């Protein structure tokens, strides 16, 4: 009974151990829009900002969307052990600064990482109780429509690039069985998507013991 009361007291006081969440999604699925809306409805959640060697897009701001760094600076972070995970995607490097996770945990906040499937596997190995969420399009045709629309808005429609992204998306979708949760982001149903992810986070926060890692 004493152990059960201790668990109850921790949850009631809000002093439970912070949780680590990962959100992965194929390029073009709308994860940045989803995360922007999620921040407004889930309290006590720090969304980590990854470092990347790719150039920023016209609408992206360093420190808000990514930390845009040089190849040399990324190599320094990696060699110094300052990255929780790192992965190469489309010829560019991405990685999560470990100090963001440490600092958020010290504040008692949960942390959500926006990373692709290779990075998610690395984090799961290092932190087996990490909760993995896969955000998926309704289908390949849905994703193709999203990618073509985004390309048209930028004024640069490259069929080869769209085909490459679709191929990469299919490889990522094949990794869904290794995730804990699957959320489909239907076009025009952002609120529904955000509610589903928020519900997953709240359910995991209420767990008496951490979710065991998948074998």
Q: Main traits of this protein?
A:
4-stranded mixed β-sheet; Rossmann fold; alpha/beta; 215 residues; 8 helices; 5-stranded parallel β-sheet; 9 strands
Task: Tell me the span between the first and last alpha carbons.
Answer: 31 Å
Placed side by side, the strands forming the largest sheet appear as 2-7-1-8-9
Strand content of the residues, in percent?
15-25%
Query: In which range does the helix fraction lie?
Result: 40-55%
Radius of gyration, whole Å: 18 Å
Overall body shape: globular
Q: In this structure, how is the largest beta sheet organized? A: 5 strands, parallel
Structural class: alpha/beta
In CATH, the architecture is: 3-Layer(aba) Sandwich
Uncertain residue segments: none
For the record, what CATH class applies? Alpha Beta
